[in-house]
Amino acid sequence: MAASSENSGNQASTQDQMVAGSAWMTAGSILSRILGAVYIIPWNIWFGAFYLQGNALYGKGYNIYSFFLIAAIAGVPSAIAKQVAHYNALNEYGISVRLYKRGLEIAILTGVVIASLMYFGAPLFTGGDQNLVPVLHSLAWAILIIPTMSLTRGYFQGFQQMAPSAISQFVEQLVRVIYMLGAAFIIMRVLKGNWITAVSQSTFAAAVGAFGGLSILGVYYWRRRHEFRSLVANSNNEMVVPAKQLYQEIIAQAVPFIVLGAGITIFQLIDQYTFAPIMHLAGTYTAAHLNDLFALFGVNANKLIMITISLSSALAVTVVPLLSQSYTQGNKKDISAQLTNAFMMFEFVMIPSALGMAAIARPLNLVFYGTTHEALAASLLAFSSYLSILLGLYTVVAALMQGISQNKRAVRYFLVGTIVKFIVQWPLVYFFGAFGPLIATGCGFLVACYLIVHWLNNQFGINYASIAKKTNGILLSALGTFALARGVALLGGLLGSQGRVINFLIVAVAAVIGGYFYVYSVLKSRLADAILGSRVAGLRRRLHIR
């Protein structure tokens, strides 16, 4: 009986850790993504007639940069978080500190090498668009800083300290946005300069923001140095791990993270390099028109859906060290419970967010991107919103596999999904145009997610009965949210206005009404309690819901 009570207490503690960690990471990620989307409005206005071309150039540069950045980081932050949690569970905090220092050496070295490769090899990665060269040069500087920053975030996460990561993430984005908007305004409006120069300075803002984020982490580390020293002093100190083994552990854990962490980026690069050639076969299009189309589905819509995908990304980052701890302890029952909790928390936030964004796609697109290709842009955003559920699911299941040391298997499943993407890409783009890459991406990730979830269920058992019951409640509430938000958007559309202010008000009203309905329904039905724990009872009392 005592053992049962202890296990119950441990599960509750684990769930509390997951919820608390997810809250911090979700808040940091969401605020960062919102900042990363809000800047679009003034940025587009200042670019004027060049904004779609500028957005396409910006997006192409960032896709290439994202891949190089993931190669530079090499999965080390997530690997460090996983391994630090592993040694902390064994009360070997001294090894965790040594692991961080060795990881720091790797991060600095890979940052210098990859940044140099991107800077000096820029002409090789342009796909024929020479305007990309200065953009890639400006982005290379960020790769010198971000690996060290990301590694330090992973170290904090390994100690289940999510606040430093979340706050540094927000500060990084805030500094980046301030710099890029200031640079764009001065170049385009004050100096009446070249739009390519303005894009290059906007991308250089990544390095400026990274410096700000790293500074915040340095402050947190300094403040908590005594806490870390105390943990090291009270370690078991029974294990001796040579430096060579620490390097091997980091690299062995990190390399698969490159492929898995770059999953969405790899699919976007496939679109970037294949969309225009396939479309030229399908019909006669100018390069400028195809750039516009790429901006609509590959950049504009993607920036907005990444706000909702960041919800699941936050969950993924939180669950890796927790799963690693349970896996180290050989607690299969706890692993099963954590898998089930992770899926439920993913559905709880992702489904209503994605459906809500799809419901207000038209006014939301008008707020951020104006009236250019209005109907097509709204349709692509709505479709991308539905697709974001699948992209978010991939982010979560890939992290789950990493948490239980199944990196190689996860990479194999992702490669199968990538092959599917390649197979269907040509016919889908040829016949469906700008929707084709999105459909092909959905097919690829659907296969990868199915293979991973199927394997997890076979090995650890996923409580599908519990998930199905709660999923029905989530879907019912989310569909109600969709209907209300869609109704507000349709009523607002009767005004016939294409102005940003009116459509912002429509979006705000729809978000408030739809969001309140979802919160009210999940609190009223006690669904939130079942997924997030008893702590939500306080929110129910404050909202006077019985």
Gist of the model:
With 546 residues, this protein is mainly α. It has helices spanning 2-38, 40-47, 51-73, 76-89, 93-120, 132-158, 163-190, 195-223, 225-233, 243-261, 263-282, 287-328, 332-359, 361-369, 374-403, 407-432, 435-460, 464-493, 500-524, 527-532, 537-542.
Features:
546 residues, mainly alpha, 2 domains
| Share of residues in strands | under 5%
In total, the number of domains comes to 2
Give the number of helices: 21
Percent helix range:
over 70%
Order of helices and strands: HHHHHHHHHHHHHHHHHHHHH
Radius of gyration: 23 Å
Shape summary: globular
Count of strand segments: 0
Biggest sheet overview: none
Mean pLDDT across residues: 83
As residue ranges, the low-confidence spans are 1-15
Question: Span between N and C termini?
Answer: 33 Å
Structural class by SSE content: mainly alpha
InterPro entries: PG_synth_SpoVB (IPR024923), Poly_Biosynth_Transport (IPR050833), Polysacc_synth (IPR002797)
Keywords: Cell membrane, Membrane, Transmembrane, Transmembrane helix
Organism: Levilactobacillus tongjiangensis
Protein name: Polysaccharide biosynthesis C-terminal domain-containing protein
